[in-house]
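chain below, 377 aa
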Amino acid sequence: MLLRPCAPLRNTCLTVFCLVGIACWCAVAGAESREADPPATTQTKTADSPADDKKSITPINIDLPADASISDPNQPRFVVVLLDGTKLRGRLLNESFAIETRFGKLTVPLAKFISLRCGTNTLAHRKQRVEALIQQLGNEDFKQRESAQEQLKLIGPRIVRLLEDARSHDNTETATRVKDLLEHFDKLRNQFGVEAIAPWTDKDELINDEFRTNGTLVSQTVVIEGFFGKLNLPLEHIDHIRRIQKQAGAAAYANLNVKGTHLVQHKAMRTKIKVTRGDRIMIRASGTIVRSTSSSYTSTPDGSSRFGYYYMKGDRVYGGTLLARVGSRGKWHRIGSNGTFTATNEGELQFAVSMSDSYASRYQFNGDYKVAVRVER
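prediction:
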């Protein structure tokens, strides 16, 4: 009698037989695959290796600009202005700046440094070029004279002190052209009246967070780190350097009326606007003042030649020009209808109207200037 296996046992045997067959087929196929394909490089997984090749991402190395490191608000930033007008912004890597004064050498650490400006003693080549062009104004060749005058115009109002020295030149042609240049620059400076076109001085200037010093800067290389990396700049190639004011605080705004009675010889207008060292003050003005005895004698904030000149420390401005200063002992800045300057001391912002001494003592002036002020902290 034959025993027939039960159904469950028969199914189990069939399953085992199929599994063994599949395993054998996979082994043969794997062997053939290894013979056909070149050996793959063995990779050892590390903690940084992706668990799944399909999800792996090729790493990209990004060189961040040097300027990215200046985002720290505690790191001061500066602007370096070269002789050709190029402006470079970034972080200075110099530890300090030094200047020789008549009292000895003064070294100012970068943390205390506010600004510096090179004078013609340090930039001797700049002064020599201007003096050579002034001599060329008297050249026998008309084209040479015209060329020299145009080049001097391009250099700008900062050469007025060198031109003043040549006002009484022995050569009539030179003296005449120097006079024309001075009148041209007077118009420009009365129109723009900003600190950026202040006349060149012989001595260098260095300002720290306590005082201003004049002397001769110790020659050194200025190193600035900006968007394109580090740049090494000889001091002789630099016009000036200034600290960029932090924008930590909110800007202050005010609209004021400066009356014609606020003459610089009499009493300045006090604004109750408190300014600190490094604040950037931007001013726009409009309006008219009139001499009380003649309505034809008027002036805008840019001043008028009909009101004569007001002289302030070797500089002169048209009478009627709007002026501003910080504190009662601060330096007056020519503002006109559009002016900007950076405070070098703390105090109250004040305004006044320039006027020739003779007019200030003889006449009254009506009208006022409408002044808009913005102070960036």
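DSSP finds six helices and 20 strands in the chain. The chain has three domains: 66-119+203-244, 124-197, 252-376.
thats it, cya
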